[in-house]
């Protein structure tokens, strides 16, 4: 307790100093102050982790263990703005998902560690796992060593510190408030307040004015109010608190003339909220500078998208399966193959927002849109063609050659296959309108959503736990604020709704032979979901109501099917028929106008 009391005194001291400080005389001063703040807080986390280890070793009662665990989580949340931004690999060890980490390129997996793993051991707690809990507590202490080294070896400047703080606000909105990393304890809202208070401290050190710090206080106060279980108003909290907070941070930063970071990220530096219509930096998702969309490339890609000469038989183009009026899907369970009789392997996914993710196809086999175009052109059931054959007929047209030359200035005298793939990919990358009623609501139009849709949004974020896999603002498996990875899930999709028989498609396992990837499929976007029926990779689910029933029951496990790798919770969501209708109404508000 002596160490803990000393830490509390030190924290109180620096907090008091923060309250009286608005500017810094030098970069060295700022760097030193951030180091001091971080050192105090990692000392606190280390002390908490040591206490948890000691209690685990002594096989202390459940409530004592939970209390110590809660303090560790709170201490981590105070450091999260720094940890995830400056030491992402270490952060995964500290608070990563309780699922194996799959490295597809190396065809290997790593066991999960950290706070989320411990949460599964403590909620509920079984003394049979006490040895495992002790092991995890020791591992937590070990993982703090590289985090401390990162603190000691990092030179802090206002540009990166501000960016880290702003990303933390976005992280709380996209992940924290939904309980993404606290699904069993239910501490998501409370921990959001802890994380925001730490960000407020750092913003004070950066020189933020009292008006902005007061905005933090107002937002944090909402997280500290006691409300009946299941009644927290996520919709209002995002629209009225978190979005204005991040907007105010951004406005102050640029008004103060502070220098932004210079390298591109998924979100533009100027993005005031996660829901700005132009928040995304498309170039971040491009793997080659020559593939960055320009109006000329997009125009050529659009022309090719609708040209039947793409197919080997000259009778099909991209829009044959990706029809704009159906949100770039086709309305079929599975489309007819090029032979006119058989069916393609899977349901046609939307191309809207496809450019803002890190993997393509349901089985995630293509890392880029260019790879996707290549795959589709070569696929005998879909196009039975090739970029080479497309380039051949393009080169026979002098007008098109000149247009390609204008779009790709480094092109010599010949259109190459890569130009074909990059042009089509450029068009697809621009298919992200962000013009739904939900977007209008998040931009301040309180009338954009009906009462039922707002209720559905609150259920989506809370009781139904939809947002823990379909991350805002894209509503797919690509999580804010880094958007660095796209996730897959094992749901145990049935061959037909209500029939206790797994669909035989093995998903990602087909290409990567790891047991954890059996029946794993990419988490698709829910944007425009009202236009893209039927659903799931097999197209067997005709309505959103059928989909909701499947989730509400607990996936395959809810139908009595044993699926060891199922990542969807096997527990029923216990949603009423009315609640499911509200969620469907909300999802229909994700349709772009």
Automatic annotation (TrEMBL):
Q: Name one GO cellular component term.
A: cell envelope
Location within or outside the cell = Cell envelope
Q: Which residues form the signal peptide?
A: 1-21
Pfam families documented for this protein: CCP_MauG
- Lineage: superkingdom: Bacteria
Every copy of the Cytochrome c domain together lies at 296-432, 451-591
What keywords sit in the KW lines? Heme, Iron, Metal-binding, Oxidoreductase, Signal
> Does Iron count among this protein's keywords?
yes
Molecular function terms from GO: cytochrome-c peroxidase activity; electron transfer activity; heme binding; metal ion binding
Quote the protein name from its UniProt record.
Answer: C-type cytochrome
Species assigned in the record: Chitinophaga agri
């Amino acid at each position: 307790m002596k160490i803990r009391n000393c830490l509390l005194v030190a924290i109180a001291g620096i907090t008091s100093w923060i309250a009286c400080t608005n500017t810094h005389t030098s970069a060295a001063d700022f760097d030193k102050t951030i180091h001091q703040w971080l050192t105090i807080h990692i000392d606190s986390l280390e002390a908490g982790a040591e206490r948890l280890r000691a209690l685990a070793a002594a096989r202390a009662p459940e409530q004592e263990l939970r209390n110590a665990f809660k303090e560790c989580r709170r201490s981590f949340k105070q450091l999260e703005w720094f940890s995830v931004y400056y030491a992402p690999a270490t952060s995964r060890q500290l608070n990563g998902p309780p699922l194996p980490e799959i490295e597809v390129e190396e065809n290997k997996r790593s066991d999960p560690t950290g706070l989320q793993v411990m949460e599964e051991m403590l909620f509920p707690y079984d003394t049979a796992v006490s040895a495992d809990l002790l092991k995890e507590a020791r591992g937590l202490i070990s993982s703090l060593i590289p985090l401390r080294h990162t603190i000691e070896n990092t030179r802090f400047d206002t540009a990166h510190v501000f960016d880290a703080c702003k990303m933390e606000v976005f992280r709380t909105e996209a992940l924290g408030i939904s309980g993404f990393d606290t699904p069993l304890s239910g501490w998501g809202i409370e921990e959001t307040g802890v994380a925001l208070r730490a960000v407020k401290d750092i913003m004070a050190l950066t020189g933020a004015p009292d008006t902005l710090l007061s905005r933090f206080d107002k937002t944090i106060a909402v997280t500290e109010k006691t409300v009946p279980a299941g009644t927290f108003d996520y919709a209002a909290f995002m629209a009225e608190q978190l979005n204005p907070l991040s907007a105010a941070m951004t406005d102050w930063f640029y008004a103060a003339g502070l220098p932004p970071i210079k390298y591109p990220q998924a979100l533009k530096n100027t993005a005031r909220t996660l829901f700005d219509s132009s928040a995304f930096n498309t170039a971040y998702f491009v793997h080659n500078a020559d593939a960055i969309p320009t109006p000329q490339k997009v125009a050529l890609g659009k022309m090719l998208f609708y040209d039947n000469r793409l197919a080997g038989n000259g009778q099909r183009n991209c829009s044959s399966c990706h029809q704009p009026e159906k949100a770039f899907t086709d309305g079929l369970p599975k489309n007819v193959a090029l032979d006119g009789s058989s069916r393609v392997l899977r349901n046609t996914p939307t191309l809207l927002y496809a450019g803002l993710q890190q993997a393509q196809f349901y089985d995630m086999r293509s890392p880029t849109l260019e790879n996707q175009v290549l795959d589709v052109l070569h696929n005998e059931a879909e196009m039975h063609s090739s970029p080479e054959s497309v380039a051949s007929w393009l080169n026979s047209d002098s007008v098109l050659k000149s247009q390609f030359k204008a779009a790709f200035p480094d092109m010599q005298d010949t259109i190459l296959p890569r130009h074909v793939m990059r042009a089509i990919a450029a068009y697809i990358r621009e298919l992200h309108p962000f013009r739904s009623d939900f977007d209008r609501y998040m931009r301040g139009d309180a009338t954009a959503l009906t009462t039922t849709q707002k209720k559905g949004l609150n259920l989506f974020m809370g009781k139904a736990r939809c947002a823990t896999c379909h991350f805002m603002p894209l509503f797919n498996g690509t999580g804010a604020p880094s958007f660095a990875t796209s996730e897959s899930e094992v749901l145990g999709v049935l061959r037909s709704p209500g029939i206790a028989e797994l669909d035989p498609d093995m998903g990602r396992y087909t290409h990567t032979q790891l047991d954890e990837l059996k029946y794993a499929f990419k988490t698709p976007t829910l944007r425009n979901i009202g236009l893209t029926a039927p659903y799931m990779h097999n197209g067997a689910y005709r309505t959103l109501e059928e989909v909701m029933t499947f989730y509400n029951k607990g996936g395959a496990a809810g139908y009595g099917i044993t699926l060891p790798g199922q990542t969807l919770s096997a527990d029923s969501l216990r949603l009423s028929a009315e609640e499911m209708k509200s969620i469907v109404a909300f999802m229909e508000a994700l349709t772009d106008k």
